[in-house]
């Protein structure tokens, strides 16, 4: 008997929503993908075959009977739902408005999970009539490929939800990581610590973007894909860690804002894939080609990592 609710609803069909919906449908749920934008829904519907093809390629187990429907009617999207996953833009007021719209339409036993990248759950729940049912459920991009989900209860979250969500995540063969609430949660605090140092190294001209990507990908990235950071310390030796951290920690970048060169790029409309240029420049067809290379690589890596012992 699966813990996955029969009906689930995903609110927001942008970068994250469609992959979340497809992953739940693959596990047998009837999923309603909702957005306020007809264009977003149309894009998701047309790209759905690609997403399910990726799930097939990575060998994601299939439970028969699952489906995804696409729509812009909130009442239809919420009818009979047992789990709502919110994936609208990272704006506190917008998320709180969405929660209010949801609460007006569902019973107070329905789980509301937010895919926020790091806004404290406690803060978001303050505006809710039943704050106990809000919980953080942070998927990573691309959500139909990265099989780890952070589960973060806020101060008001009904703690029974934590175990319930852990079982739901396990029901679609993902790894749940339960965390105490802290801004950015665990994954993004580590990621943004890495990115802060990377941006400082680029800004100081210590390394080129290509050199930085090669160094991090084949150095710590490759190693950390097999050996987690705490196990790595045992492998390297805690004495080595002490010797190096004793002089290096004070040298690391401690910037508290986005680097100016990044702000300048954004001001010039250089956002990355979505604008055809950012940290790198992309010619005709390059973005689609790069996206395909990344997905192909993530599929191959996921299959290999799934076949080796969890050290
Ligand atoms: N993009 C990423 O790499 C990741 C994003 N997240 C988080 O997931 C959430 C969603 O992020 P993305 O998918 O990247 O955003 P996005 O901007 O790509 O998509 C958001 C979607 O929400 C829709 N929307 C806006 N207002 C709405 C409303 N009131 N009701 C329903 N839909 C509405 C928009 O039309 C859009 O289609 C954010 O909180 C983000 O921080 C989490 C992990 C990774
Ligand atoms: C750059 C960046 N920022 C945030 C996130 C997130 O998890 O919210 C991701 C991601 O990979 O999911 C990311 O790459």
From TrEMBL:
Residues 184-282 form the 3-hydroxyacyl-CoA dehydrogenase C-terminal domain. Pfam families: 3HCDH, 3HCDH_N. Keywords: Oxidoreductase. PROSITE patterns: 3HCDH. InterPro entries: 3-OHacyl-CoA_DH (IPR022694), 3-OHacyl-CoA_DH_CS (IPR006180), 3-OHacyl-CoA_DH_NAD-bd (IPR006176), 3HC_DH_C (IPR006108), 6-PGluconate_DH-like_C_sf (IPR008927), 6PGD_dom2 (IPR013328), NAD(P)-bd_dom_sf (IPR036291). It comes from the Bacteria. Residues 9-181 form the 3-hydroxyacyl-CoA dehydrogenase NAD binding domain. Pathway: Lipid metabolism; butanoate metabolism. Belongs to the 3-hydroxyacyl-CoA dehydrogenase family. PANTHER family: 3-HYDROXYACYL-COA DEHYDROGENASE FAMILY PROTEIN, 3-HYDROXYBUTYRYL-COA DEHYDROGENASE. This is 3-hydroxybutyryl-CoA dehydrogenase. The lineage of its organism: Bacteria, Bacillati, Actinomycetota, Actinomycetes, Micrococcales.
């Amino acid at each position: 008997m699966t813990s996955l609710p029969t009906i689930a609803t995903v609110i927001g069909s942008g970068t994250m929503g469609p992959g979340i919906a497809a992953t739940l449908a693959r596990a047998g749920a009837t999923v309603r993908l909702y957005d306020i934008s007809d264009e977003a829904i149309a894009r998701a519907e047309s790209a759905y075959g690609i997403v399910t093809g990726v799930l097939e390629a990575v060998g994601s187990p299939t439970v028969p009977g699952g489906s995804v429907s696409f729509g812009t009617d909130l009442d239809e999207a919420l009818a009979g739902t047992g789990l709502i996953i919110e994936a609208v833009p990272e704006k506190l007021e917008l998320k709180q408005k969405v929660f209010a719209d949801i609460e007006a339409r569902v019973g107070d036993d329905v789980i509301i999970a937010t895919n926020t990248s790091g806004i404290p759950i406690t803060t978001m729940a303050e505006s809710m009539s039943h704050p106990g049912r809000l919980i953080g459920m942070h998927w990573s991009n691309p959500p139909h490929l990265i099989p780890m989900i952070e589960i973060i209860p806020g101060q008001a979250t009904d703690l029974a939800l934590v175990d319930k969500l852990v079982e739901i995540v396990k029901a679609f063969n993902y790894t749940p990581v339960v965390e105490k609430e802290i801004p950015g949660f665990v994954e993004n605090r580590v990621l943004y610590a890495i990115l802060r140092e990377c941006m400082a190294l680029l800004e100081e001209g210590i390394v080129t973007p290509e050199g930085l990507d090669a160094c991090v990908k084949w150095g710590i990235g490759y190693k950390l894909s097999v050996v987690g950071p705490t196990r790595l310390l045992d492998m390297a030796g805690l004495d080595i860690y002490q010797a190096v951290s004793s002089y290096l920690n004070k040298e690391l970048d401690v910037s508290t804002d986005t680097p100016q060169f990044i702000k300048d790029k954004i001001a010039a409309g250089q956002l990355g894939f979505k604008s055809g240029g950012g940290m790198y420049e992309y010619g005709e067809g390059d973005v689609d080609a790069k996206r395909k290379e990344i997905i192909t690589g993530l599929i191959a890596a996921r299959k290999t990592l799934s076949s080796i012992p969890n050290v």
